[in-house]
Write a structure and sequence with these properties.
Order of helices and strands: HHHHEHHEHHEHEEHE
Number of helices: 10
Strand order of the largest sheet: 1-6-5-2
Shape: globular
CATH topology of the largest domain: Rossmann fold
Number of domains: 2
Radius of gyration: 23 Å
Largest sheet: 4 strands, parallel
Oligomer: single chain
Strand content: 5-15%
């Protein structure tokens, strides 16, 4: 005869042996996975490159198919590289690197277009988290004390809803565990888009655009100046010059992508 009472007693005895903390951790882990799965059904994570669905709980920016198409740089591993080469004689930098190579019709181009023009700030955060891990692993960026995003003019930021460079900075800050200082470098004038301009035209369009507020706390620090894409370098150069006017600043640069020239 099947002894139900006996089976129940054995089960209760086994439960009693489990520490309450373990039960609590197990419950919360189950609840978190269930909630994540439910949210994924309502708001699935999508690949920034092709729009395909990503697995639930996946923090990656690209699906496996798109990851095979993107060109990831290794600039963070060396102090001198093609990023720093673009600033020779223009701006003294400690280190500089981009996460990806930017080319037309690539998943990276589509991702950055989504970030800037289609209200997808999480793309910048995700790329920042991943790149932050790489920067820490390289050793060249471990002395960085704060991250400063290239600012948008307040009018343009209100229109867009956020600054894409700040989203990138926040992702970097999460994994590098350093603060984002997004109020010290300011854009003092509204400028038209720089996307299709040549370097000298960008300089004419952006002369005296950037300034530094509350400079004293920055003195003597190693700062990481970040932007979305490096093309001619005009924006980073002008921002860097404004920051380097502060005494004893050491400056490094990082972008989500570098345009192939």
């Amino acid at each position: 005869m099947f002894d139900i009472a006996g089976k129940r007693n054995i089960f209760e005895a086994l439960i009693a042996l489990i520490h309450p903390d373990m039960l609590q951790r197990t419950f919360f882990a189950f609840a978190r996975e269930t909630w994540t799965g439910f949210l994924h059904l309502l708001y699935p994570e999508l690949c920034a490159g092709c729009g395909g669905e990503l697995p639930a709980g996946n923090d990656a920016c690209f699906c496996l198919h798109c990851r095979m198409k993107v060109s990831v740089s290794d600039m963070h591993l060396t102090r001198e590289n093609e990023f720093t080469n673009r600033f020779w004689g223009r701006l003294p930098v400690e280190s500089a690197a981009a996460m990806y190579y930017f080319s037309r019709k690539s998943p990276v181009q589509r991702a950055l277009h989504q970030l800037k023009y289609h209200n997808k700030p999480e793309i910048g955060v995700k790329i920042g988290r991943e790149f932050g891990k790489r920067l820490l692993a390289s050793g060249l960026y471990r002395s960085v004390e704060a991250i400063i995003p290239v600012p948008l003019h307040p009018r343009k930021e209100r229109l867009r809803g956020y600054n894409q460079s700040t989203m990138f900075a926040r992702g970097l800050a999460e994994t590098m565990e350093i603060p984002v200082l997004d109020k010290v470098l300011v854009r003092q004038a509204y400028t038209e888009t720089q996307t299709r301009k040549k370097r000298m035209d960008r300089f004419k369009n952006m002369h005296d655009v950037f300034g530094v507020k509350k400079a004293a706390p920055l003195a003597g620090k190693h700062l990481l100046l970040v932007d979305d894409v490096l093309t001619t370098g005009a924006t980073l150069e002008l921002c860097g010059q404004a920051l380097l006017a502060v005494p004893d600043i050491r400056l490094s640069l990082a972008t989500m992508a570098i345009a192939v020239i």
